[in-house]
Amino acid sequence: MNKVILEVKDGVGILTINRPDKLNALNNEVLSELNTIINDINENSEVRVVLVTGSGEKAFVAGADIAFMKELTPREAVNFARMGQEILNKMEQSEKPFIACVNGYALGGGFELALACDFIYATENAKFGFPEVSLGIIPGFGGTQNLPRLVGKNVAKELIFTAKMIDASEAKELGVVSRLFNTKDEMIEGAVDTAKQIMKNGTIAVGLAKKSIVDGFNLTKEDGLKYEANLFGVVFSTDDAKEGLSAFLEKRKPQYKNS
Ligand code: COA
Prior knowledge:
CATH topology of the largest domain: 2-enoyl-CoA Hydratase, Chain A, domain 1
Number of domains: 2
Largest sheet: 6 strands, mixed
Helix content: 40-55%
Mean pLDDT: 97
Low-confidence stretches: none
Number of helices: 11
CATH architecture of the largest domain: Alpha-Beta Complex
CATH class of the largest domain: Alpha Beta
Distance between the termini: 38 Å
Number of strands: 10
Shape: globular
Structural class: alpha/beta
Bound molecules: coenzyme A
CATH superfamily of the largest domain: 2-enoyl-CoA Hydratase, Chain A, domain 1
């Protein structure tokens, strides 16, 4: 059985981590399939927006696989962390938007997978946390870097040092979650609606806006503004920019060609 599944319909890819008997925990096999599928998504122009979710109702992903990690030597642990970081980085660097759809537990590597997406939707039963220090280890797939950038250093420290879980409404208050839903089906429906809204816009423009935010976030404001201005220039080299601006002036809907 595939451990990661991708279904594509009308431009929207639904990527499901599919190891429900172990609450979708990430081992080498899952990560390797995830890597292949992310590469495929990035190459496939049919996929324009990706939803990331976990199989079943109970968990998005309950972390990296603890049984697998127990056997790692220090050198293997570095490689495991680097591998996870590289895969999640491909999602962050992808020109396509990724929406995390968190059902149930998003712990450790699961929280990190959600943080690698562009924004996070969640069901009321979602639970977020970094249990690593309670296991005597630390987050290794970007958690210590991405969580402070999202919620601020002090809130991130409290969550990581205590290893406590927070529920969906607290995660929403902290700005981790953008929208809450009662059920998984409602969440997927809501995320597909959001994807459709995104897909009405110029694909190249959305990709460049993502690039400007993601890359600009690690720059000083001054360098970020220069970077944004350069990408603003790049977008003006596209037919879509001419089409979008003309369509407004001609009072008609734009017909983007993604070129
Ligand atoms: N790695 C490996 N296996 C995991 C796992 C993980 N991160 N999370 C859950 N599982 C496995 C359990 O071992 C169990 O397997 P088994 O049926 O063969 O015994 C199965 O998934 C179901 O989990 P279980 O613990 O029985 O469910 P629960 O409802 O009692 O508890 C959690 C749910 C999420 C609270 C609990 O599974 C948990 O604490 N998981 C580990 C979370 C964690 O520390 N993640 C970060 C790792 S760095």
